[in-house]
Amino acid sequence: MQQIDRNGRVPIYHQIATRLEQRIAAGEFPIDSQLPNERELASTYATSRTTVRQALSVLEKSGILERRRPDGTFVRGKPEKLSPTLSIPVSFVRSMIDSGHDVQVQLLSVTNLPTHDATVNTSLRVRNDEPVAKFVRLIRSASLPIAYVEAFIPTTLFPDVCEKTLPDNSVHEMLQNNYGTMISDADHAIECAYASPATADWLKIEVNNPILRLESCYYDQHGAPVEFVYTHWRADVMKLRMKTSIEPITRGNLAD
Questions:
Q1: DSSP 8-state assignment for residue 247
Q2: Domains in the chain and their CATH numbers?
Q3: Which residue has the higher pLDDT, 231 or 247?
Q4: Could you tell me the maximum CA-CA distance found in the chain, to the nearest angstrom?
Q5: What's the mean pLDDT in 183-195?
Q6: Cα 119 to chain center, whole Å?
Q7: What is d(CA 64, CA 156) in angstroms, rounded to the nearest whole number?
Q8: Which contiguous run of DSSP H or E holds residue 97?
Q9: What is the pLDDT of residues 49-97, one digit of tens each?
Q10: What pTM did the predictor assign?
Q11: Which residues are within 8 A (CB) of 13 and not within 5 positions of it... i.e. 6 or more apart?
């Protein structure tokens, strides 16, 4: 049975629609293939056929599914890309979970070594010979790998950080729980890049395939940089939605 949050804010039918959308995106149900019937889906998600019917209607309206009576429900088109919302402070995983996506984060490795990456060192204000903790994680949506994440923490500020457990694989939650460090601000840069051999291997794509690379520097409540992150998103299944506020035009800011 696939996990459904029955106490969350997202309606159950919407969660089921999202799960089915992810399974179609991952190739479990190719175009023109037939989905299990309503009774089977209701059993899979431990819900009623009425709720399943609502979920199928959502995907039918979006053009992903086609109901062919009396034959059943068939895949008509590929879903749009997954689109977490970029906000400050940012949590893509939380954004996707709140939207009803089934997201898993796997910690791949933790190391404590000097980095010769000038961007990391400059952003975190560390010297080339100073060690930094590196947390490498893989984000999946359903069974599909969608992001490869490299996070760097200055061990001059957090000497034993490599020994700490990441609650729900969250670096930010670990920093708050163990050091009282709260993320209050962030700088981000997004660019199109090409997948390196290591990144391509984890994301199950070809080397040099286009990816979205997000560079993020996070600051604590005192304005000190405490984490630098490279997030490598699969460009074929992801898009980033950005939400901003617009300041009203006044005489004082007409030149902005």
A1: P
A2: 12-75 (1.10.10.10), 85-242 (3.40.1410.10)
A3: 231
A4: 69
A5: 86
A6: 23
A7: 51
A8: helix 92-98
A9: 999 998 898 888 888 899 888 889 999 987 765 555 544 444 566 666 6
A10: 0.64
A11: 51, 52, 54, 55, 58
Q: Hey, what are 201's tokens?
A: 């291997």
Joined together, the tokens standing for residue 211 give: 């990816």
Q: Kindly indicate the confidence band of residue 12, based on its pLDDT and cuts at 50, 70 and 90.
A: confident
Between CA 239 and CA 79 the distance in angstroms is 12
The residue that leads in pLDDT, 220 or 100, is: 220
* Burial (CB count within 10 angstroms: exposed 0-12, middle 13-18, buried 19+), residue 227: buried
Asked if 132 and 154 touch (Cβ cutoff 8 Å), the reply is yes
pLDDT at 143 over 90: no
> Read out DSSP for 160-183?
TGGGS--GGG-HHHHHHHHH---E
Of 84, 195, 112, the closest CA to residue 148 belongs to 195
Which residues have C-beta within 8 Å of that of residue 88, sequence separation ≥ 6?
A: 185, 186
**Which residue reads 């991952």 in tokens?**
26
